[in-house]
């Protein structure tokens, strides 16, 4: 039996499994079974917590940050391995706290190993998790940024492909601007958009509508709406690395003077993206743990599901409600 916790970040949902000693054989079949929304728990992906020292990919992580003890092993719902997940890493932070392995209160920081390097997580007073996502880049270089595109995307129902910009967040993204929100709402993303040139490793595709600027507690911020078709999943309610890619592409299209901070609306909520100095980017947003249970890989049976508060070490030590 596999003990799991179900969580989500802006409704991008995950099955989280603690496997500190690398004892679980997380096969693609098992990932597909766990993520199946009819036969399994149901999720966009599986997140396995494992000690960095047990994985070959963990060696690079520990060389960069010897204290990055825990590794986020991320799998898409189709069983494929992904380098990184921006919503997932926030939920991973909440999971690590839930397991009692770290406390991000009082200014604490958690360094997490991923296949896209070390990510550093803190928690804001309001409860949002803030992640230094590290370095990003436009794979097409200055030429692509100058032109505004280096690829083309075609979505079902469009009469012609449209220009798009590739953005590398450790995992691949392709961002397309739409004319208005009506066009965004009308999109049919049941089939994967066709991307040319076709990226060998596939890509996540973000379809965005810039919404201008607003004055907020974070100063003048850019705003945009986005839908996403994720590699290895299909359309999801949110994609954290995708929101970073979208904000960075729209900021580049806007030219000099564009805000560094962006509020990105996705079907599952809102996140905040900030371009940092040194070619780094920060992602902030909510992370929720919803319920816990056990899964039988042989029978595909989910049982013993309980609210997370019932099994949380932190909740166990908290005083009972009056
Ligand atoms: N939803 C994630 C991204 C998950 C991986 C992606 N589907 C890929 O294959 O690159 C996010 O929040 O970033």
TrEMBL record:
This is Diaminopimelate epimerase. The record marks 173, 230 as: Could be important to modulate the pK values of the two catalytic cysteine residues. The gene is dapF. Pfam families: DAP_epimerase. Substrate binds at residues 12, 76, 86-87, 171, 204, 230-231, 240-241. Homodimer. GO terms for biological process: lysine biosynthetic process via diaminopimelate. It is found in: Cytoplasm. Pathway: Amino-acid biosynthesis; L-lysine biosynthesis via DAP pathway; DL-2,6-diaminopimelate from LL-2,6-diaminopimelate: step 1/1. Transmembrane segments: none annotated. SUPFAM superfamilies: Diaminopimelate epimerase-like. It comes from the Bacteria. The keyword Isomerase applies. InterPro entries: DAP_epimerase_AS (IPR018510), DAP_epimerase_DapF (IPR001653). It comes from Luteimicrobium subarcticum. The active site is at 85, 85 (proton donor), 239 (proton acceptor).
């Amino acid at each position: 039996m596999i003990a799991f916790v179900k969580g989500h970040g802006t409704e991008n949902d995950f099955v989280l499994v603690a496997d500190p000693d690398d004892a679980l054989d997380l096969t693609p079949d098992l990932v597909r079974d766990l993520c199946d929304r009819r036969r399994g728990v149901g999720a966009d992906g599986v997140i396995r917590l494992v000690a960095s020292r047990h994985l070959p990919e963990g060696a690079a992580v520990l060389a960069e940050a010897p204290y990055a003890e825990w590794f986020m092993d991320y799998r898409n719902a189709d069983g494929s391995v992904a380098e990184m997940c921006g919503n997932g890493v926030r939920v991973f932070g909440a999971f690590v706290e839930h397991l009692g392995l770290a406390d991000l209160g009082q200014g604490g920081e958690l360094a997490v190993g991923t296949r896209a390097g070390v990510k550093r997580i803190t928690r804001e007073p309001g409860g949002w998790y803030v992640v230094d996502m590290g370095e990003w880049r436009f794979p097409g270089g200055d030429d692509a940024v100058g032109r505004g595109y280096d690829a083309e995307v075609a979505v079902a129902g469009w009469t012609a492909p449209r220009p798009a910009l590739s953005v590398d967040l450790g995992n691949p993204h392709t961002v397309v601007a739409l004319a208005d929100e009506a066009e965004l709402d009308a999109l049919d993303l049941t089939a994967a958009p066709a991307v040319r040139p076709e990226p060998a490793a596939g890509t996540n595709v973000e379809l965005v509508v810039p919404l201008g600027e607003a004055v907020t507690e974070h100063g003048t911020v850019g705003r945009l709406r986005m839908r996403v078709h994720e590699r290895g999943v299909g359309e999801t309610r949110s994609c954290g690395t995708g929101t970073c890619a979208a904000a960075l592409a729209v900021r580049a299209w806007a030219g000099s003077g564009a805000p560094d901070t962006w509020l990105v609306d996705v079907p599952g909520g809102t996140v905040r993206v900030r371009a940092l100095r040194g070619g780094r980017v920060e992602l902030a947003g909510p992370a929720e743990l919803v319920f816990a249970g056990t899964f039988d890989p042989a029978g595909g049976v989910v049982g013993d599901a309980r609210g997370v508060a019932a099994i949380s070490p932190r909740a166990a030590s908290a005083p009972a409600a009056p």
